[in-house]
Amino acid sequence: MENILKGTGPALVTPFKKDLSVDYDALEKVLEYVIQGGVDFLVALGTTAETATLSHEERHEVYRYIKKVNNKRLPLVVGFGGNNTAEIIDHIKKADFEDVNAILSVVPYYNKPNQEGLYRHFMAIAEACPVPIILYNVPSRTGVNMTAETTLRLAKASDKFIGIKEASGDIEQVKTIIKNAPKDFLVLSGEDGLINEIASHGGHGVISVLANAFPKRTVELTNKSIEDAQAAKSLQDDFAELIKLLFIEGNPAGVKAALTQKGLIENVLRLPLCPVSDDTYQKISLVMDEQ
User: Fold this and answer.
1) Which of these is catalytic: 136, 160, 224, 283?
2) Which residues are bridge partners to 104 per DSSP?
3) Burial environment of residue 15 by CB neighbours within 10 A (0 to 12, 13 to 18, 19 or more)
4) Are 245 and 287 in contact (CB under 8 A)?
5) Average pLDDT over residues 264-270
6) Is the pLDDT confidence value at 2 over 60?
7) pTM
8) What is d(CA 165, CA 207) in angstroms, rounded to the nearest whole number?
């Protein structure tokens, strides 16, 4: 599994029409754009997809459509996460996993479980899930950090856990996981700004927001960072201002502004998210012109 889920995987946006319905034509454009841009795998129904604002039926329709358009060209990872373990398991049992290579499952948010609760939560998911699992640690959104010790405990407890999307921003934590994880356990950056640094410590790639709008350059940055992180550091530095602007008013508002400027989608988000301000939109435009 590590061979097909290394490298760059865009955390795909969900385009919307002005009436807030899912824009499947635009979704196809984005899919073809990133596939032609050379990404290594696709990630559906993550944070960037505004999954929290999609109905249960929409979620299934979106990833069915992505499977159809992808047509087995690239490995596919689909998000199955939440803060109700029983509900996640119920969704997994009812889901169609044909042509799905793994799920991405986020640390439960809002109810702030302790580390034992996190361990039991993910072990219950592993028991129910028919495909491999990539853990997703993003404490800035969930309110709790899954420690390196818990990640390693899970990785060693079940071979269902094939990797982690690490977005804690804690490099020492990332290094501990990389050093002590079972052979072939993937450590993927969950932050575009840390692609190079995590690769320098033995990381295997990124699940990326940036790759929606800049797939070729994100792939170049990721691959060169894995090959020779020191030599690729300047590529990471070149993206610093753009990455800052893409996240300054939240994700995916920034990357949707960039995709709009590329003519791929409408600049529409579902509340409580909204488009970036005119000022940020213009700044993104100026930086994109310099890329």
Assistant:
1) 136
2) 79, 134
3) buried
4) yes
5) 98
6) no
7) 0.96
8) 7
Q: How far is CA 136 from CA 5, 70, 88, in A?
A: 14, 23, 15
Kindly name the residue from 29, 165, 256, 283 that is annotated as catalytic: 165
In whole angstroms, give the CA distance from residue 46 to residue 50: 7
Residue 24 has pLDDT above 60, yes or no: yes
For the question of residue 165 being annotated catalytic, the response is yes
* 283 labelled catalytic: no
Domain 7-229, second-level architecture: Alpha-Beta Barrel (3.20)
Q: Give the pLDDT confidence score for residue 290 in this predicted structure.
A: 80
| The pLDDT of residue 1 is above 70 | no
Kindly compute the dihedral angle of the four CA atoms of residues 127, 52, 48, 243, in this order, to the nearest 10 degrees: -120
DSSP-assigned beta bridge partners for residue 163: 134, 186
Which of 288, 273, 240 has the alpha carbon at shortest distance from 48?
273
- What residue type is assigned to position 263 of the chain? G
Q: Would you kindly state where each structural domain of the chain is located, as residue ranges?
A: 7-229
* Side-chain-facing half-sphere of 211: CA atoms under 13 Å: 34
Give per-residue pLDDT as tens, 55-84: 999 999 999 999 999 999 999 999 999 999
In the predicted model, what is the mean pLDDT of residues 228-252? 97
Q: Which two tokens stand for residue 42?
A: 């696709």
Provide CB contacts within 8 A for 194, sequence distance 6+: 169, 171
Q: From 215, 214, 211, 207, select the one nearest 291 (Cα to Cα).
A: 214
Give me 84's structure tokens.
């109700």
Query: Which residue type sits at 36?
Result: Q
